[in-house]
Amino acid sequence: MLMRYDYLVFIGRFEPYHNGHHAVVRHALTLARKVIVLVGSARKPRTTTNPWNANEREVMIRAALGGDADRVLLRALPDHLYNEAAWIGGVQREVAAAIADDGGASDATVGLTGFDKDASSYYLREFPQWELAAVQYSAVLSATEIREHLFSADEGGQLLIRANVPTPVAAMLEAFRRTPAFAQLSREFTFLKNYRKAWEAAPYPPTFVTVDAIVVHSGHVLVVRRGAEPGKGLWALPGGFVGQTETLLDACLRELREETRLKLPAPVLKGSLKAQRVFDHPQRSQRGRTITHAFHFEFASGELPPVRGADDADKARWIPLAQALDLEDQFYDDHYHILQFFLGVA
């Protein structure tokens, strides 16, 4: 059969891989010799939005494809939440590496495929060098709906899952429901559901305002470990919600003191303020629409001040910057990307 492309690229999170994804890959295999599947959000911690790591999602995809798996090249694709150019470069880099590893020619014919369904499909037009082979959106449960059913106790929902994912994926999801990771995510799912329910009577959809502190001292960054849902056990930047009578900076300094017991006086901290920025990605927080104002404090040298976890942080510690930048899968919400931004490595 004459193939239109040497390679077709399909980008997604696949949380989980469902029948709609499967239809795209199957169709792509009729058009291309090989399909390059980029598994996004590759280094995220487990959350109710991203329950499976990249390796687990790759296993799902390979199991669903069966004998066609050898025609699909799977690559992990990390997020760059506040640097679109870096994300685009990452896609280009992974595609080039997949082709090189496959022994493909440098002038191989490459196309891009995926659902062109709504505003979230904007990325399909970020790669003009690749012809777009868009496919019609399939009328199946979305990954979001599947996750909602997965974490509910509704038996009917479990039947719907089995009807909307490939059989091998259904078996993997059922096995996942018996793991400690699922139990923790179920608790988080219940917490978030109740949290959002408490705001249902508000006259307008709520927008929360928070602050975060990035304190860099002698090549270390100050982080706290979350002691409760959401994100229990994950590392985070010290911070929290802004009080009704506080300025943003004062709220940041208060949260910093409450969560870390850092003894540096407020004038010293204010004098070390290097930068500040608003981070407002619509999906940055699992709680709902949350805009954070982050403040970057920097001390070039000196002995690290003692810290101790308090308030809703069960631990506070100084982590070497190089180590912190290797912990993307252990950071809460978008805090890793905020840290990246201020360190200039995003």
Number of helix segments?
11
Largest sheet: 7 strands, mixed
* Total separate domains: 2
Which residues sit in consecutive blocks of at least 5 with pLDDT less than 50?
Answer: none
Oligomer: single chain
Radius of gyration: 22 Å
Determine the CATH superfamily of the largest domain.
HUPs
Total strands: the figure is 12
> Which term fits the overall shape?
globular
Average pLDDT level: 94
InterPro entries: Cyt_trans-like, NUDIX_hydrolase-like_dom_sf, NUDIX_hydrolase_CS, NUDIX_hydrolase_dom, Rossmann-like_a/b/a_fold
Protein name: Bifunctional nicotinamide-nucleotide adenylyltransferase/Nudix hydroxylase
Keywords: Hydrolase, Nucleotidyltransferase, Transferase
Pfam families: CTP_transf_like, NUDIX
Structural description of this entry:
This protein folds into two domains: 5-180, HUPs (Rossmann fold, 3-Layer(aba) Sandwich), CATH 3.40.50; 208-343, Alpha-Beta Complex (Nucleoside Triphosphate Pyrophosphohydrolase), CATH 3.90.79.10. The chain is built from eleven helices and twelve strands. α2 packs antiparallel against α6. It is an alpha/beta fold. It has helices at 19-31, 54-65, 84-101, 143-151, 155-164, 167-176, 180-197, 248-260, 266-271, 321-324, 335-343, and strands at residues 5-12, 32-39, 72-76, 110-115, 131-135, 208-217, 220-226, 235-236, 239-241, 273-279, 290-299, 313-320.
